[in-house]
Amino acid sequence: MLSRINEGDFLNKRELYDSFADMGSETKKMLDKIETIKTEMMRVIEKNAELEIENQHLREHLKELETQKQNDGQGLSKSRQNLEMLYEEGFHVCNVDNMYGTRRINDEPCVFCQDVIYGERR
């Protein structure tokens, strides 16, 4: 009977040791996973900070563009600004009676040209 007790103790000790060994390897795996998650989280936080900074710069740039648009040619598009420049140099920019590109007489205002340049602005 004494041999059975000793043999049972040995099995219990062996199981206990194996359980600790398994727990140790599982703990190591869990620590590796935690380290991987920590690394990935840091990458995401850094990327988020970069995107926030880029977003702020884009908002500032958008405000600059809006301000510039308000100050430039009273909000005219680039093509209308070009037409306005031609008109101010004394040329027709309207196509009434095929007058486009002809010189305005005495630089008199042309309602049709002004409508082409400034009409339907919204």
UniProtKB/TrEMBL annotation:
Residues 34-71 form a coiled coil. The keyword Protein transport does not apply. GO terms for molecular function: metal ion binding. GO terms for biological process: DNA replication; negative regulation of DNA replication. The keyword Kinase does not apply. InterPro entries: YabA. Keywords: Coiled coil, Cytoplasm, DNA replication, DNA replication inhibitor, Metal-binding, Zinc. This is Initiation-control protein. The lineage of its organism: Bacteria, Bacillati, Bacillota, Bacilli, Lactobacillales.
